[in-house]
Amino acid sequence: MIDGIGDYLAGALIVVGALFALTASFGLLRLPDVYTRMHAASKAGTLGSCLMLIALAVHIGEFATTLRALAGVVFFLLTAPISAHLLAKAAYSAGYRMWRGSVSDDLAETVTAPKKNGLVGTER
Amino acid sequence: MIPFRNELILALVWVAISGSYSIPNLAFGFVIGWIVLFLVREQLQTTKVVIRPIALLLLIALFIKELVLSAFKVAKLVLSPRMDIKPGIFAYPLKVDRDFEITLLANLITLTPGTLSVDVSDDRRTLFVHGMDCSDPDQARRDISQGFERRILEAFR
Amino acid sequence: MSGAAFLNICATFALGVLTISFLLVVVRVLKGPSLPDRILALDMLVAVAIGFIAVLGLRSGVTLYVDVAIALGLVGFLATVAFARFVMSGGVDAIKEEAEEDRP
């Protein structure tokens, strides 16, 4: 990689990535319930850390390390939606309700029957 | 079909991540890969998968575009002074039926604008999706089936 | 302005922005109000920490930071999965209830 361009690209990438991380944490504070917060964390947060890892890969410019950093990016892209999905499912099946402004809930009709431990119906 | 294909892929990933390109390290990675696949052998499906490279590249391109778009959308929503959202969960009837396709679709949905997959029904026909803007579920359903699901069907059938 | 100087300014700015977002996420961890909220905030904390490590690696040029970031991502993912299983099994309340049932 040509020195100058690599540095400028890496600098721009980390600034954009950091700003995405900031919006994600801002969303975590402002949004009303756990499910909407998950949107902010799983999208903007993932993109933010991925951009910063890509910046690191660009900057180092050494084949083995760049490959490792890119493997980290792929790994992060694969795991972030899985953990968000699992947490959403867990929160829903443990009975955490959605924000009162929510407009529809198709899932409610299917989980009326109590599942294992009989915990689904408990109010919190 | 190459014998020990999955073990070989895991061994190559191991070599890339450990950063030491030597034959003993490749063999070590192969052994680890074999042990890992031996441990999860009961969960693995043995369906034959056809991969179309060009369609797969299109799917990846669509995914990256949607991820960037969705991050911008979340940023815009969060930074607007009055948050005007109508969140909700809608059911999405699945056309794909194999486990890995459902997993892939659910993950892609989670990383796209305003949608987050929550649960799959026990018969694997319906995906429950939490939408940031659930005022028009039909439009959201159409977006998914025209976008990712079509591309997945093109790439793996 | 040379590339290295630009990168240095960018890295300092990014560290500042990441510190602010780190503090915002910590506020969410403290405020709660429910267990999944806190788990989600901890997950986000790991993502911000990975960003920190990437920027530190950029500034210092030490390639070992890449491995640290990957390891932290792995640990964070496993922690979130474990926490989610814990919530799915009923969380703290279920354990309390079980303890009360065991009491004679």
Automatic annotation (TrEMBL), chain A:
Signal peptide: none annotated. NCBIfam families: CPA3_mnhG_phaG (TIGR01300), PRK12674.1-2 (NF009314). The keyword Nucleotide-binding does not apply. It comes from Aminobacter carboxidus. The lineage of its organism: Bacteria, Pseudomonadati, Pseudomonadota, Alphaproteobacteria, Hyphomicrobiales. The chain crosses the membrane at residues 6-29, 41-61, 67-88. It holds the Pfam family PhaG_MnhG_YufB. This is Monovalent cation/H(+) antiporter subunit G. The keyword Membrane applies. InterPro entries: PhaG_MnhG_YufB (IPR005133). Keywords: Membrane, Transmembrane, Transmembrane helix. PANTHER family: ANTIPORTER SUBUNIT MNHG2-RELATED.
Automatic annotation (TrEMBL), chain B:
The chain crosses the membrane at residues 12-37, 49-72. Keywords: Cell membrane, Membrane, Transmembrane, Transmembrane helix. Pfam families: MNHE (PF01899). InterPro entries: Cation_antiport_E (IPR002758). It is a multi-pass membrane protein. It is found in: Cell membrane. PANTHER family: NA(+)/H(+) ANTIPORTER SUBUNIT E1 (PTHR34584), NA(+)_H(+) ANTIPORTER SUBUNIT E1 (PTHR34584:SF1). Belongs to the CPA3 antiporters (TC 2.A.63) subunit E family. This is Na+/H+ antiporter subunit E. It comes from Aminobacter carboxidus.
From TrEMBL, chain C:
It is found in: Cell membrane. Pfam families: MrpF_PhaF. This is Cation:proton antiporter. The chain crosses the membrane at residues 6-27, 39-58, 64-87. Belongs to the CPA3 antiporters (TC 2.A.63) subunit F family. Signal peptide: none annotated. It is a multi-pass membrane protein. The keyword Cell membrane applies. Keywords: Antiport, Cell membrane, Ion transport, Membrane, Transmembrane, Transmembrane helix, Transport. NCBIfam families: PRK12599.1-4.
